[in-house]
Amino acid sequence: ELFALACGPSQTPISVNSYVVNGVRFVVRSRDEHRTTQNNSICSPGPDGEMYYGQLEKILEFSYLSFKTVLFRVKWFDTSNKGRIQNFVIKNNITQIKANGEAFKNDQFILATQVKQCFYLEDMARRPPGWKVVEHVSHKKFLNRGVIVVEDDPDVIHVDNSSDLALSTSL
User: Fold this and answer.
1) Each residue of 95-110: pLDDT tens digit?
2) Torsion sign across C-alpha atoms 26, 108, 44, 113
3) Residue 161 contacts by C-beta under 8 Å, 6 or more apart in sequence?
């Protein structure tokens, strides 16, 4: 794999509207905007233990000699609280985020295997509007071609040509 990385991708990246990572479907925001179900909300733990939240803007798939890798371009929400200005609140075990602000404009890309799916619900009790309630979900089992697959390895991308990583399955 190191040789394949050194050679670079075999072609320009492919931009797709949706992608399944670890059995979870992620969809770009532009495709998800007018749908009832939303699959573009993501979160990712940072090196400092803090959780970062955003919306999926673009999915890029890079093909190398022997494997593929996927990058997500994300609009990250501003989770900083500066003085009296609050963009992020955890109260009574409920996480609320102000979805109007944007952060990390120069650092928008993340590996697809580094994110988790979450959901943003409109916070109807909060004024002014623009606040969302974050709902974290746990995807432990999923259906893949008639077989229930239990996968705890965050580095495996479930596509046909992904890489030669072994998938663990059990019934």
Assistant:
1) 888 888 788 888 899 9
2) positive
3) 68
